[in-house]
Design goal:
The complex is a heterodimer of chains A (about 500) and B (about 190). Helices cover about 40% and strands about 25% of the residues of chain A. Chain A is elongated, with a radius of gyration of 35 Å. In chain A, helix 7 crosses helix 8, helix 7 crosses helix 10 and helix 7 crosses helix 13. The chains are: A alpha+beta (about 500), B mainly alpha (about 190).
Amino acid sequence: MHDPKFEKEVQQKMEELSFNPSEAVWENVEKKIRKDKKRRVPFLWFFLLAGIMLAGGYYMTREMRSSPSLSTQRSGTQPLSAPADLAGKDNSVKKDISGPLPATQSIAPAEFPSNASANIPSNRASDIPSKTTSNTSSKAADISSKQNDISSTENAVSSKQTARVKLSSKITGRGHKALDGAGGEQEPQQSLSDAQQSLPDTQSSVKKDIPKSAGQGDAAASLVKAIPPAAKENISNPDKKIAGQNKSKITHPWKIGLTAGSGISAMDRSLFKPSTAAERSTFASTFAAYPPGWQIVPSTIRQDISFAAGIFGVRPLTRKISFSIGLSYHYYSTTIQTGGPISPLPAGNYNAYSLALLRPTNANLQTSTPAYGKGNEDIQKEQYHSLELPVSIQWQFTRIRKLPVYWETGFSISSLIGINSLSFDGTSGAYYKEGNFLFRKTQMSVSTAIMFGLPFAGNHLQLGPQIQYGLTDLLKNNIGNAQHLLFAGIKLAFIMGK
Amino acid sequence: MDHHQLVKGCLRRDIVAQKQLYEHFASGMLGVCYRYTKSMTDAEDVLQEGFIMVYKNLHQFKFEGELGGWIRRIMVNTAINYLKKQSRYQTELLFTEGGMHPVSNDDPAVSLDAKELAELIRQLPPGYQAIFNLHAIEGYSHVEIGRILGINEGTSRSQYARARALLISWINKLSAITKTETYARP
């Protein structure tokens, strides 16, 4: 057997082989590994946040539907019955839904006016079947519409072609707009199909201009021949043009936009910090002496209107992902049922154990503090005015250019600049308007939205549903369930500029 | 140098640890890359890609073997992939199914130094060069080489035999020239 002495020797020699690499190697390696790190971290965060938001949104929607039973669970001792008016509303809604649909909503085929076809002009009516059957002729016209689009933009049509162009422009006036309008972002094929829709009116005139001796395929070929080479390239590579336009957008990165939103806001007390067993036990022992039916838990906080308005800057990061940052004002409101005003304040006010809503301290409480008893005589509105700094990432996840859909997710840091809210004292069962000192002014929230680019104004107008959830507990040193502001509504965004 | 700590530091994405790892292994690994390529620029490209792969896959290193050996395997794989990707190597990596070529029993003493020997290996056609490196230096079997390069075991054997014979003839010639020059010197 062969003894690999040679190989061993070569191996030994090659172990000694070493060279000093140039500095550029490490620089490139370092650049690459840092880039990977940077790229990974924000995306992980955004997808994590978005996942949490979607799950939270789903959970909240479910919770809001069953809010009376939720408050019963929180109280731990006293079940709360759903208010009569709400029950009534529910029933009326059910009735509305379960009632028969108006007869006018369904149109039987027989009800379709028999003279409808007579209203179609005779030449059009005769064209309808020919449009569906004579594919070759429609293709010829289709190509001629392409020719018109391109030759008008290139502005280089020979005199021989001019006649055809005039003819084509008659046919495809819409095609022009579709390509040139809306910032050039329309799908060329869609514009061609638009042009095709307008075909039946003039199809016969097209046929006249095509030499009778030539077959329809020949006519199409002759039209294709007439297209200038540069234009042909644009036909075969429509994406090239679009890609170029998108590139030019990225050269002007930041755009300013206005945003507005409207919907409902609610107070969530179920996520993040549910009351512990110990707290529930303390509550139960403290209030065991109260007679049954004593409403020691606060009324359910109900949702109310909310709106927002602001300004933002947006910058595309890639063709599909953009980053935005802004400043906006957000108004949240909720309602709560109380009894009538009470004066003076009940004795022994401000016990430390106010389970669901309240607060650790009785400091700063004045006898002049407006207070309301328990009950359902009055509906008090609680209002929160917030100045927010939203930061978000928007991802376009559909390729439909006429109706792009974006997924937006982000977070915001906000400051509560005005609060008009009641606080509940579990001992006395009274609600107090005691000012802002119980509230945490700096809030952090996450949001997600599905935005639809509206098919006008160059998709600069976006509209869609949005959910925003406050991550921070609204109250300082809260011993009970944490309170989080929730907004669900419709968001509108308008990006200015071309 | 404690490789354990170094790896842990790299996994924490500590840039100092990453640089230390690079500085410790880069020169030796450039020698490996150099043997597989035809120019220093290509060798540095392979080294760069190889180290990126190292940092990317370091979490897979289980301390079951030498860190240097693990990095070396990555470098070799990166080099082979590089050769497959680069068009200037591709044509010459097309292995023809030649007849069996017996491995000569010639075992000349290698009087050349490491760099001279490396230069001779690099003069081999890329197919020969890769197979010679993989078998003679890295110690891969012909079955493994066949799997790596996508060729038959027999092809690997015969190509290796040719490469070996060619290299030995060059070594002998070079040694003869060196001897003659030595004798000719006054």
